[in-house]
Design a protein that fits this description.
single chain; 269 residues; alpha/beta; TIM Barrel; eight-stranded parallel beta barrel; 8 strands; 13% strand; binds 3-methyl-2-oxobutanoic acid
Length: 269
């Protein structure tokens, strides 16, 4: 049991003020969430990336509210000290504000999350404001927002032109005005990540947004090497769990076939 204090939205704000980097990771199940929390991660995101790395969909678009609430419950059972944020899936907040409120409330009441994340800048600002007004902490997400992959025509880096750079800064400011506690910046040019980080008082969390962001986030399966699908340029692999599992299973298989497993000690004689 760790004795560290629960991380809140205020903790993250103070970290930005002090220039202390914020460490964020995704988690989709109880035991991984517990391990990441014991390792001192500041924020755990039940990302809709679960749709790809856990559920095996081709994009984040198909994962449903019910599936996301289900896995958020698994993660919240680890009772993380990290701030626990649930990603609102595609279609769960875009239709209208009352749908967004109903679904965000499910993440808090049923899922046990501390807050939610929604994608989009200006066009999501009104929704963010409505959620914040009823007491739900909201994390923004701009740049290469995966739920808009079809609109973008693929996973493309943002902030490449002056127009795109300036529009992203405006998006970040509008989200800040709407009351979001932090903004994820995904796949944007380093200059855009840096300029947004300087333009807002709330913490920016980068994923492919350069080193100047107030914190960084990665998909846990990318970090540990347990997902072989799409691997963007910003991923750094810290472990090769995929091959560790394959090798362990090959050894188990050999032991079963040769009769070496189970031994007398591993049996009830
Ligand atoms: O779904 C997710 O995992 C995310 C992070 C990559 C920011 O949105």
């Amino acid at each position: 049991m760790s004795d560290r204090k629960k991380v809140t939205v205020n903790t993250l704000k103070r970290m930005k003020e002090k220039g202390e980097k914020i460490v964020c990771l995704t988690a989709y199940d109880y035991s991984t969430a517990a391990m990441l929390d014991e390792s001192g991660v500041d924020l755990l995101l039940v990302g809709d990336s679960a749709g790809m790395v856990v559920a095996g969909y081709d994009s984040t678009l198909p994962i449903s509210m019910d599936e996301m609430v289900f896995i958020t419950k698994w993660v919240s059972r680890a009772k993380p000290k990290a701030l626990l944020i649930a990603d609102m899936p595609f279609g769960s907040y875009q239709p209208d504000i009352s749908t967004a409120i109903k679904n965000a409330t499910r993440f808090i009441q049923e899922g046990g999350a501390d807050g939610v994340k929604i994608e989009g800048g200006k066009r999501s600002a009104e929704t963010a404001r409505a959620l914040v007004e009823i007491g739900i902490p909201v994390m923004g997400h701009i740049g290469m927002t995966p739920q808009s992959v079809n609109e973008f025509g693929g996973y493309k880096v943002k902030g490449k032109t002056d127009e795109s750079h300036d529009a992203l800064i405006d998006d970040a400011k509008e989200l800040q005005d709407a009351g979001v506690f932090s903004i994820v910046l995904e796949a944007v040019k380093t200059k855009t990540g840096t300029d947004i980080t300087r333009a807002v008082d709330i913490p920016t969390i980068g994923i492919g947004a350069g080193p100047e962001c107030d914190g960084q986030i990665l998909v846990i399966n990318d970090l540990i090497g347990s997902y072989n699908g799409f691997e963007p340029n910003f991923v750094r692999r810290y472990a090769d769990v995929g091959n560790t599992i394959r090798e362990a299973v090959k050894k188990f298989s050999g032991d079963v076939k040769s009769g070496d497993y189970p031994s007398a000690d591993e049996s009830y004689e």
